[in-house]
Design goal:
Order of helices and strands: HEHEEHEHEHEEHEHH
CATH superfamily: P-loop containing nucleotide triphosphate hydrolases
Largest sheet: 4 strands, mixed
Helix content: 25-40%
Structural class: alpha/beta
Shape: globular
Distance between the termini: 26 Å
Number of domains: 1
Strand content: 15-25%
Length: 234
């Protein structure tokens, strides 16, 4: 979750789900970003592939995925809906999709603190939220709004992921902080939540997302997340 768009929430969702599946867990993704979904594209799934069925699509690795984009005839068609319809679709995905037995269901939220996040927090018994930010001061500020929403809704926050944390030059190895220096440690400490990981800008990650082969990208994000949760549980 994040209060701001463009920080990489869908990428983080995809990496976590892929890591969980590779670790042997039964995994699903509920795409709650109704008007701007990107999960199907990352996994190489096409609009109309589910033929308006409420059975989730399967990624190449077998991750169960439901997104409104999969129910459209044309993935480029806009979804021009008001808030109640958006909230209703998210609730329907949770209640009516045939998810079966899952160990992890990751929910990709749109930016902000409005209809979709509110519906998810009200109607789904969440184990917790993962906040996603980038190094910009503005992004960190907006994450604080999301943290306050989580507190109001009494949903635990499991940790923070900082995306786009600099770029390592492939020629000289020097790290360039494209969006400014990292503020993840300070932000996590202020919120009293663990810093799960910093994800650098990576051309290969972007390429896999664009090509629909995100599952081929090797990431240690889920492992880092799991280790933190296991430490909490003793």
């Amino acid at each position: 979750m994040s209060g701001k768009g463009g920080v990489g929430k869908s990428t983080v969702t995809a990496l976590l789900a892929t890591g969980a599946k590779k670790a042997g867990f039964r995994t699903g993704i509920l795409d709650a970003d109704i008007t701007g979904p990107s999960i199907p594209k990352m996994f190489g799934l096409k609009a109309g592939s589910e033929k308006k069925s409420f059975s989730p699509a399967l990624s190449p690795l077998g991750i169960k995925i439901m997104s409104l984009n999969l129910l459209l005839d044309n993935e480029e068609d806009p979804v021009i809906w008001r808030g109640p319809l958006i909230g209703g679709a998210v609730k329907q995905f949770w209640e009516e999709v045939k998810w079966g037995e899952l160990d992890y269901l990751f929910i990709d939220l749109p930016p902000g603190t409005a209809d979709a996040p509110l519906t998810v927090m009200q109607f789904i018994a969440l184990d917790g939220l993962i906040m996603v930010s980038s190094p910009q001061e503005l992004a960190v500020m907006v994450v604080k709004k999301a943290l306050k929403m989580a507190a109001v809704m009494k949903v635990p926050v499991l940790g923070l992921v900082e995306n786009m944390n600099g770029f390592v030059c492939p020629h000289c190895g020097e790290k360039v902080d494209v969006f400014g220096s990292s503020k993840a440690d300070a932000a996590a400490a202020a919120a009293n939540i663990p810093l799960i990981a910093r994800i650098p800008l990576d051309k290969q990650l972007a390429a896999h997302g664009d090509a629909g082969t995100i599952e081929a990208y090797e990431s240690g994000l889920f492992k880092a997340f799991l280790e933190i949760q296991q430490k909490k549980q003793g």
